[in-house]
Design goal:
alpha/beta, seven-stranded mixed sheet, 5 helices, four-stranded parallel sheet, 305 residues
Length: 305
């Protein structure tokens, strides 16, 4: 758990570390969002700032005069807005305004981590994960695209551009149609490389694939690596998106039209939810990820005659 560095007051429930979700900084404007973190978990950014679910906070109170927001909550614009109830020290920032995932960010210099006294939660191996339970549908109940998908897909595409060194690449079937409307994220031109979904519990990728789209471990954040011989470069994909695309079942993110191909659910089954509009990636996720990949820059546009 985390306690106040000044007086030792407990500021969180017992929590276990997991990977920071890729959609942490990317929400949808004018909408209220659920908590970013699952109960009983925390994650840390490279700057050592720790994030928890608001429901796991303890011993903190809002600071009057530091609760400004846009329209539906607090956006943290005034800096730390939560104080330790033991000594009054500013220790964290709550954010829950529209367009933001609900979070509490702990100030690294104002808190310290201590053992909770509970047994440590073991980190599951790939073969211990219930992968189907992680799958996230691409379309919400109201017909809008999943905000997690809208962030995770362009983040993965940025890694793919880097792995392919700016060369055009063919996406695997269930992802190709989805990203057709966002071709601006990928280099133009006929594909010269191929990509394939791969990961635990799935068949070996098709021969000749130049790059693999694989899951990112939900706890460690590590990229899955094939257990067999020499493998192509691996591009991390949010496990919720990967599980929906790679595991058996109805995986097409867009409804089929015309004659039903083999494996598509008939109309005597619950049909997949239909999106209200074409897929729209988060406007910053792709560019931000490219900038964070050190030593890599966006491919130069081709010369025009």
């Amino acid at each position: 758990m985390f306690v106040c560095a000044g007086c030792g007051t407990e500021l969180t429930a017992p929590v276990s570390r997991v990977a920071l979700p890729v959609h942490a900084d990317y929400g949808a404007w004018e909408e209220l969002h659920p908590p970013l973190m699952d109960p009983g978990t925390y994650a840390a950014e490279p700057r050592s700032v720790v994030v928890i679910a608001p429901g796991d906070s303890r011993g903190m109170a809002l600071i009057p005069g530091k609760c400004a927001g846009y329209c539906m909550g607090i956006d943290g614009r005034d800096g730390p807005n939560l104080a330790c109830e033991g000594c009054g020290r500013a220790v964290a920032t709550r954010r829950d305004d529209c367009g933001l995932w609900q979070v509490v960010w702990l100030e690294p210099d104002a808190v310290r981590r201590v053992a909770s006294g509970l047994p440590a939660v073991p980190v599951p191996g790939w073969d211990q994960l219930d992968l189907e339970a992680y799958a996230v549908p691409p379309v919400e109940l109201d017909g809008s695209w999943s905000r997690r998908w809208q962030a995770a897909v362009p983040v993965a595409l940025a890694h793919l551009v880097v792995a392919c060194e700016g060369r055009p690449v063919e996406l695997p079937g269930p992802l190709a149609e989805l990203v057709g409307a966002t071709a601006g994220c990928l280099p133009a031109g006929p594909p010269v490389l191929t990509s394939s979904l791969a990961g635990p519990g799935t068949p070996a990728p098709r021969p000749g694939a130049d790059v693999l789209l694989v899951p990112r471990h939900p706890v460690t954040g590590e990229t899955w690596r094939p257990p067999y011989g020499t493998a192509p470069p691996a591009v991390p994909l949010d496990i919720g998106v990967w599980a929906h695309l790679a595991l058996p079942g109805e995986t097409s993110p867009l409804p089929a039209s015309g004659t039903l191909p083999e494996g598509v659910l008939r109309d005597d089954y619950p049909l997949p939810l239909r999106p209200r509009h074409a897929f729209r990636p988060h406007h910053r996720a792709f560019a931000d990820t490219l900038e964070r990949l050190r030593g890599i820059r966006s491919p130069e546009p081709p010369d025009t005659p």
